[in-house]
Each structure stands twice: as structure tokens, then as C-alpha cells.
Amino acid sequence: MKVPEELRYRETHEWVRVEDGEALVGITDYAQGELGDVVYVELPEVGRAVSAGEAVAVIESVKTASDIYAPVSGEVVAVNEALADHPEKVNEDPYGEGWLFKVRLADPAELEALLDAEAYKRLLEAEG
Amino acid sequence: MGFCWPDQVPLIFERSRKGRRGTLAPRREADPAALFGAENLRKTPPALPEVDELTVLRHYTNLSRRQVGVDTTFYPLGSCTMKYNPRVLEEAARLFVGLHPYQDEGTVQGALRLMFELGEYLKALTGMDAITLQPAAGAHGELTGILVIRAYHEDRGELKKRRVVLVPDSAHGSNPATSAMAGFEVREVPSDADGEVDLEALKRELGEHVAAIMLTNPNTLGLFERRILSLTEAAHAAGVQLYYDGANLNAIMGWARPGDMGFDVVHLNLHKTFATPHGGGGPGAGPVGVKAHLAPYLPVPLVEKTPAGYRLVTDRAKSIGRVRSFLGNFGVLVKAYAYIRLMGLAGLKRAAALSVLNARYLKELLKKRGYRVPYDGPTMHEFVAQPPEGLRALDVAKALLDEGFHPPTVYFPLIVKEALMIEPTETESRETLDAFAEAMGRIAERGLADPEWIKGAPYTTPVRRLDEVKANRRPRLRFGHRE
Fold it and tell me: What is the C-alpha to C-alpha distance for residues B439 and B431, in angstroms, rounded to an integer?
């Protein structure tokens, strides 16, 4: 199971990659494995202001539908339109082409509250 | 199996042959254009299959033989109460088919009396003060109940601040959906280590911003919320309304009442608990009972008993209005009424007790065969098991089809991984439960020994394992009618 070192993580299995004040958000390799084959992704509208911890997207798999929480606060500046036709990207490439949305950081200090790769790995071990 | 059906069953349309027919329509005596207006007549005939009567009979009889349902096998679908509903109740409902909802009240006194008395019985069973029979199903009842709560807060000038509905993480998915549909924000409350609502976490969420809490009791793990009185008391102290999801009422009928637990609103699924076959899309009925302070907001019309007879009341200033055409799904109400009269309170209590006994018995049998029960508290009408380590719930469910059983609910509630949610109901015999447990034992044993075998199940059904991913990603929702 992949847990890239350079990313930050939320306990609810979202990852964040920060570039130029913008946070790219997706779900982790562990999360996609637990969900099983993704069949539909509902993304937030571009321009929406989201706050950290708010449910902003929904991923449906053959097993279940799960809320996806915003790891950080800010304005949604982009969403991954390609997932509408190819939701399987979330399974195939969760840290790359399967990204979900991008948020312009309102408060970069919020990143400190997220887990680093080591802490996230420990969380996964605890979840078994 | 005596009859071998080909893999690809033709559609009834594909059996159509031009000019073939089963009946002769009566000769037309009136001019339709004069009756309905020439502009309203269709120019081309509808594309109906042209088939003879015997072809129709065989087509549907053979399709019905491939059916897996409670008429053919044990159907332990958790949280759905797939019990057997006596056929005589269908006969009872048929007694009323000649009625029309536009008939004058004076000519339907019996039907109105039935509705009134059914309402009284359901009020007595739930501990509520007033009731509407209109909603067409459980989720519709939920929406009605939450709209009633909303109207109550609005009337008191508190709706602007009360924007949140609290829902436990073990809830039926319809609870958060209902709250969102009624314009509220949903917040999830965690379960504790015993599988009950985490009372301290819930108390931290309470406040003037909360409109309601939606709860199922027993919850979806089949466990009775033992601290329910403390919970409802704390909620009421914060001005929060308590909503009872009646999906699991079968477990406590006649033994405990949501009203006594402190709930303000309750919906019932007559099509689960009160004798209407359930599944396949309806029709159902989801009556909503409320405490006196919410009664003014119930939908109209309501049936009222007066010295001069029964009548429908529509002039209620604070009502949320109609939620369904006419008086709801009346046939379902007839079946519920007849069922309650046939069973009596003693019979309903016995049904509830047997549903609990069957669930506890089956749980112990499955534990002996390697299945795990993560929240192993005092089980009510259902329990949530996990397959032995190394097996997946989906594979066990598919293998059950080869054993001739309908699978249980899988992957719900969400707080249990690889969940198998099993509700045997009161109408199953000990022999059936034993046979089911034996089958589950065989599946576990063989599945662990031969992983390829279980991944390939089912082997004996008319259609083998479906490609659920493709079916969801590329759904084809209508058949292609080849001209």
C-alpha cells in the first residue's frame, strides 16, 4: 500500500499536495482499496468556499457511498472533470490522475493539523 | 431442475409476431374522435407485443420460476424485515377495490372507520398522540416527520438558528438524505465501543443550533440503545426534537413504545412490520405519529370521528399540507388493520419476541461456524456478523445463492467491515435456521480452503456473477426494442 512521503493526510483518508498556495486533494491508496471499484464521483462546484472538515464530495463504489471531507479551508479552484467519465481513475491512480479537487488555501497554518506520512502509516496499522 | 431454460431469455417483445393476438377487442360502438377530440387521438398504434395467450402465460410463469423471494426461500435481508405475510390479508385488501377516493364521505364510512381505528392502534403501539396515514413509504414518512419538526421550529421562530440534524454513524442512509432534503445540515454522531450512540459525544453536539436527532432503536446493529432515556432527556433540555425511525419496530412491538422513550415523532413501515410484502418497489405505507405539540403541523386530510360519523378534516391552519394524493396507499392500510386485528396485542408481542429469539439463536449458530460478531451485545431482531478472516461478505453472499438462500444485507451498517446483516424474522422455523447455518458453515469451510471456488460463485443460478462495476459505470436503463 502506497503512502507517499511528500503528502499530508487527514484521518478520514484524504491526501493533500500543496503547490503555490493551492492544495490538491484526493483519497489514499488505502481508501480506494477499502471502497472497492469506484463507480461515481460527485465533486463540489468550482468557486465554492469550503471549510476544513466539511463534507464536500461523495464517492460511490459498488459497496457504499462515502463522504469526502475538505482537509483544508478555502475556495475550490478546480475539480477533476475527467472522473465523470472515468471514475476508475480513483482506483487506478489515487495519487495522480485520480485527484478530486483543488482548494486555494485560506489558512496555510491548517496544514500543520494534518498527518505526515509516518503518522498516517501508524493510523493505518492501528485500523488493521 | 426439471425445466431447462435457455441462458438468454427473450423479451416478451422479441416473442412478438405481427398479427398474432390473444384476445379480440370489443367492436367500437362510439366515435373516439367525437368523445375525446381528434387532436387527442394517437396516429400510430402503441408498440405492444403481439403474442397469443399461451405464450404470455409460459413467458411469465417461467420467469417467475427463476425468482428468489420469500415465497421460495429464506430471505434474511437485514433491516428489511422480510417476513411472511399471510395471503388472507391480500383478500382483505381486495374487499375494498370497488371504492373511489372521490366518493362522498357518507358512502365510505367503513373505509374511514378503518383508517381511524388503524390510526388509534398505531398510536397505542407507539405511544403517540396524533397520526397521519398518508406517506407512501418509510423514506416518505421520514421526510414528512422532519418537515413537521421544521414547521414546529419555524412556528416558534427558531428555524433560523436550528439548522442541524444529528444522525448516528450506524444510521440508515435515508436519515441523512431526509435531513438534507428538508434543508438541514447533517452531522454524524459516533457509536461507542458497545455499538450504541456515544452519549457524551452526542451531548457535546447539542445546542440551540440543533433541530432534531434521528435514531433507530434497536439500531442497525440490532442493539437496543440502553441509555435512550438519558439521551432524549438531554436533547429535550436543549430544545431538540427526537425522531424515531420505525424501520426496526418489529423487534419491540407491544413491549416498548417510542413515545415512552421520549421520542416526539415516529414513522412506521407498514410494509415491513404490518403485513404488506416488501421489496420490489411498493406500494408501501409510512404513517407518521407525533406527540400533541406537533399535531397541528401534520398533513391533511385527517380522519375525525364525530357523533354524526367519520369525516375528513382539511381545514388546519398550521398543517404542512398534503404529502400524497388522496388518502395514501389505502390497500396497505387495510392489510395492516386486518393484521393487527388478527394478531391482537398478545399476538404482536409474541411475533416480536420470536423475531428476537430467532435472531439470537441464529447468531449463536453462526458463531460456532467461524463467523464473527463484532458488537455482540444483547441482540434484538437482527445482528451484524463478519465472515471468518480471509473471506469477503460479497463472496459469501454469492455462494449462498447456490445453497438456495437469499443472501443477507451486505456492507451495511458502514461501521462494520465486511458486514453481513442478518434478520431472520419471526416467521421462520428452527429447521430453516438450522439449514441456513449449515449452509453458511459449508461456505466458510470451502471458501477458506478454496479461494478460487468462492470467487467464482454462484455456479447454479440462471445468471452467474454479474459485473457490478460495469453495470454501475455504464448502466443501460432501458432495453433496446428492435424494430
Answer: 12
